[in-house]
Amino acid sequence: MFFEFPFDVIINILDLLTIQDIVKLRLVNKSFNNLIIEYGFKLYFTNQKWNMIISNINSKKHDHPSTSSSLNDNWQQKVSFGYTTQQNWKKKFFSSTIITKYHGQSFIPTLKFDKEKLLISIGSSIEIYYFNKNSCGDFNKKKKAEWFISHSNDITDILLGGGIDDEILYTCSVDCTIKQWELNNNNNNNNNNKNNNGYSNRSDYNRQYNLAPKKQFKGHQNSVQSIYVFPDDPLNLYSVGFDERLRMWNTETTQDKMEISLPGRPRVIHGLSSKNKLIGVGNRSGENFTLYYVTSNDIVKYATGIKDHQSTVYAIASNPNLPNTFATGCYDGICRLFDVRTMQCVASYRDPYDYHPVFSVDYDAYRLVAGANRNGIIRIFDLRYNKNNCDNHQELKKGARKNDGWSLYLGNNRSPVYSLQMDHSRIFAALSNMIWMLDFSKYKLNYSNNNSNPCLHYTHAKNWLG
């Protein structure tokens, strides 16, 4: 009966399965086994972008990079890795690593990563860690970070990619400017003894580059707070600033193509749908969240809007593998998941024992992670179980059910989680004085550097007494 469905329907069904479902489906009969071997594993791992992890594993084992063909055929190792990772998420098993610390200093950092590198904005500087190049494949080991001064004042947001080119980086700053950088051109004037931002005389910051910006965008009259570029439309850059303006820039000419007034001071801008060129702006206003769609020659405010937010939206996230959804994190401590097609809130998530605002949020097909504005708390929710009505805030306040999620503390730290990003096996989180990585692909008891402040976690269904 199942194989009588159209082939594209079968493929879409396979896309919805977890790694545990895929493994069990192989045991039904030979037809299902052949289907999973030919399409199931490949679809799952392609969507989750796991080839980078397998590449690292094989490189360590054989001391030389494996060919792409051997990696693609090594499904047994991929399945083993995926199953272990999913089980660790379920059991709350992870290794914790402090990537770097900033002693005696406090920043508002931002981080972004792709399959090759991790970028962190610290003050007016950008740090770059290449996973296969200079991090030894393990952040527990000594590493060498490449870094450069990018602005004359603190960086407020960074954007990696800017379309199909992974070496293009955009940064914006309190100095009212936006800059475009080409990272593969970072071999200019290597200076190892510069004394900038307190980084001198530190062995893990011994590669400073005087990298010149490829382009600059000037026009905002106050701090540029957030920037965004649609991956399939690299010619247009969108920005919001504390001058309460949304601007659209031509990335080729750096010219300001459009300027519109916002209803309040903005916090974040993010693309919600590449198909409809839909943009969301979180701001401090009566609306808290405003929508804009991009036409061929203009930006028009979205007519219907969203009325579900009761307070300022600080964080917005979307997922290219889930093009019909986006998530928001708000000052009221609630994370909300929306369907782009109906513009309706389909689920809301909240830790019933922590009402602090949400400063950062990210999600995948199975779970949502949110960074709180105090005590280094990361909240983790399972998207498949929460069925709360977004309008029923009383239900959120009463408590949580068995599978509603759990939270963890990143050591003894009172800092907000200013920025975070996740993939299938890891969470990277930026606090005011340190950067953390939580790895669910392997489990080992790994505390912070002084071995006295482990990551503590508790489930939302239990009253944690601290």
What characteristics describe this protein?
single chain; 466 residues; alpha+beta; Methylamine Dehydrogenase, Chain H; 6-stranded mixed sheet; 31 strands; globular; disordered C terminus; WD40_repeat_dom_sf; F-box/WD repeat-containing protein 4
Level-2 CATH architecture of the largest domain: 7 Propeller
Q: Approximately what portion of the residues adopt beta-strand conformation?
A: 35-45%
The parts where pLDDT drops under 50 for at least 5 residues are: 51-72, 187-206, 393-402, 445-453, 462-466
By CATH, the topology of the largest domain is Methylamine Dehydrogenase, Chain H
Number of strands: 31
Helix content: 10-25%
Q: What class would the helix/strand composition place it in? A: alpha+beta
Morphology:
globular
Span of the ends, CA to CA: 53 Å
Name of the CATH first level of the largest domain: Mainly Beta
CATH superfamily of the largest domain: YVTN repeat-like/Quinoprotein amine dehydrogenase
**Which whole number gives the mean pLDDT?**
79
Number of domains: 2
User: Biggest sheet: strands side by side, in what order?
Assistant: 2-3-4-5-10-9
The total of helices stands at 7
The major beta sheet can be summarized as:
6 strands, mixed
Determine Rg (CA atoms, Å).
22 Å
Region (Disordered): 184-205
InterPro entries: F-box-like_dom_sf, F-box_dom, WD40/YVTN_repeat-like_dom_sf, WD40_repeat_CS, WD40_repeat_dom_sf, WD40_rpt
Domain F-box: 1-53
Biased composition (Low complexity): 184-197
